[in-house]
Design brief:
Elements lengths: L1 E7 L8 H6 L11 E4 L2 H9 L11 E7 L6 E3 L16 H13 L4 E5 L7 E5 L10 E2 L3 E3 L8
Parallel strand pairs: 4-5
Antiparallel strand pairs: 1-3, 2-6, 3-7, 3-8, 5-6
């Protein structure tokens, strides 16, 4: 399975450092998680919703990673989430779910529904899991949003 991440060039490491520092929808601060998406277009949308509309980001890159079929992926279904799971800011219950998954260490990858497009999947990757080293991170490529996105 191939997953994607869009980020600034300076944050290209697949180490979960940003999520550890600041937390995210699916993790509490102090927990390292790499956020990825099931397609490049979903990764673009997930990045875009956090962009200041007055500033078109420069120096973005797209990075894919290949997860071998032999790696177990845990999955969370919408039916098992709180009714307000798509709310922004995210309910703390989601941070508890992701943080507990990292602490359990049961799988290196957690499939979660996208809050933007619930029928598509994002994938959390636990860089501390023993099978993380089996995930192949590919060479980053420049990524640019179409200027029409800022009309």
């Amino acid at each position: 399975m191939r997953v994607w991440r869009i980020c600034s060039k300076s944050h290209q490491a697949f180490d979960g450092a940003g999520a550890r520092r600041y937390g995210g929808r699916w993790n509490r601060p102090g927990t390292s998680v790499v956020y990825t998406s099931g397609s490049l277009s979903l990764a673009a949308l997930e990045y875009f919703v956090h962009v200041d509309p007055d500033i078109a980001p420069d120096h973005l890159i797209a990075i894919s990673a290949d997860i071998p079929d032999s790696i177990e992926v845990e999955s969370i279904e919408i039916a098992n989430l709180p009714s307000d799971w798509r709310r922004y800011p995210a309910p703390e219950a989601l941070q508890d779910i992701g943080t507990a998954w990292v602490k359990r260490g049961s799988t290196p990858v957690l499939a979660i529904p996208s809050a933007l497009i619930p029928h598509e999947r994002n994938y959390l990757i636990n860089p501390a899991h023993r099978d993380f080293r089996r995930i192949r991170v590919n060479k980053p490529a420049p990524f640019h949003f179409d200027p029409r996105m800022w009309k």
